[in-house]
Amino acid sequence: MSSQLILSTWPRSLKMGNSYNLSPLIRLNTPVPRVRSVSQRSMRHTMYFTPLCAHPSRTVSLINYNKTDSLQLANRGLSTVPESKAERIPGPTRLGPILRNIPTSMVPYAQLIRLDKPVGTWLLLWPCTWGIATAAAETGASLGHTAWTLMLFSVGALVMRGAGCTINDLWDRNLDKHVERTATRPIASGAISPQNAIIYLGGQLSLGLLVLLSLPVDCLALGASSLIFVGTYPLFKRVTYYPQLILAFTFNWGAMLGFPAIGIWDIPSMAALYASGICWTMVYDTIYAHQDKRDDILVGIKSTALAWGDKTKPIMKAVTAAQLGFLTVAGITSGMGMPFYAAVTWAGYRLYNMISKVDLDSPVNCWKWFVDNIKTGGVIFGGIFLDYLSTLFL
Prior knowledge:
This protein is 65% helix and 2% strand. It has 22 helices and 4 strands. Helix 8 runs antiparallel to helix 15 and helix 19 runs antiparallel to helix 20.
């Protein structure tokens, strides 16, 4: 189906030079004006419209690249056209099973907390589970107590990851409009007003507080202090090329919090697990940042993807070596056995394989390997948990 057939029928008010401002249409169930040869009924409830055309050879640019933009990209060794247009330009996005089965009015709020993209929740949760399982192995905590703590942290990870997304999108609402991958986010597109997003954030933080109050009192100060990083992370991408480091401080806080949640303060093991998680996040979030590096240059967003440039892979290998070293230290200080070290070895293989194979100039490939870190985090938890079970039953 020709994109020109669709675009030529849209109101002139949506035109921006040779591009189209589709933000007024980024709403669920918004009909396409005067579109022929398209079943609107089939689109309703199952699609919303992104600001980009589905066909890779007929693009609708969100950012109009001019000579200055092209020069900026050329200075970074990038072009205005990615290696594969099909990988750069998403088509209409189908709602997943979760979003299809909730009230239409709630869909933008579910999208705001990335309910349909749980990878961030998993990456936030895994360091928590490492800390909990390590502390349980050290203390011989009961299976019931450990399972209850894991459940509380799972709920907390879901809630606080959503709160982090809301804070991030509030800070970035004017920047997100100019980045292809983020332009349809609910606040940037206008589906949720900033005022309503703040009210929603208040509810999320209240739920997070309830989870924190369900943990031992020793956890309160340590858990609450993480909000410093949660609230300020979006600012750092404007002033430093290392916002990934601040995100790493935030995402791995649970590696420390898991210890007092079980009832122990093992500072050396807490610090080593936390440091290993920081290294891990620096690697996977740099891969994530490579998805947006062209747009980031033009709108002034900084990242390690831009700071490291063509040295990204060697640096990531060095950081991964540090991660494995810190994991080994954590294993030694906490008295771990063979299941733990086998898991660390397997995780190391997975990480170096990822670094070797990822195509940092392909957004689709970057996303694929970014998501693969869910399994790597699970491998590490699996090794620690098997060690814990061995202390209970062997």
